[in-house]
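Here is one chain, start to finish.
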Amino acid sequence: MASRGPTSKRRPDDVGAAMLEVACRLLATEGPEALTTRRIAAEAGTTTMTLYARFGDKDGVEQAVIVEGFTRLKAAMERAAKRSKEPVQGVIAVARAYRRFALENPAFYAAMFQRTGRAAVPTAEGHRVGSETFGVLAAVVQRSVDAGIVSDDADVVARRVWAMCHGAVSLELVGMGVAPAASDEYFDGSIRSVMGGHAAR
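Its structure:
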């Protein structure tokens, strides 16, 4: 397969990002069998030697995809958390950011959460950034606890919100969610229901 052009004019970060995007797309659309070093390098317009130098092997690429995906999701959730100061609305804003990321980046989302390849168990780095991503949601839920709106443990509530987000988004991605016209209202209402179930009494 022909290269897309010389890599000498591209920065190392650009080449690495291109390989990650290719690997993520292949994992999501064709499965782990399509994830070969030769194909990743060719479709990213680079060489297998560059891939080995950057990631070690194709399992290393898959792990990097997981880390990159959570890094992007974390950043999106952090931006949402900073924009909304009202406690419950802040949780909804972060949940919306989670959903938006999944719908706009379905390949990354699939690689992060389906993990069908050989490198299905994330590395310590993957665990770290995944935990930090969840921590963004937990910190926003903590605002509701501190404000006396929610009376239960913030970690427990955050995990239930996360589970609701993941379930609703996963169904939506495979076309089994509610009608598109009602999806925004349904999603927000689902998050409010979880928070309401833990309301202080």
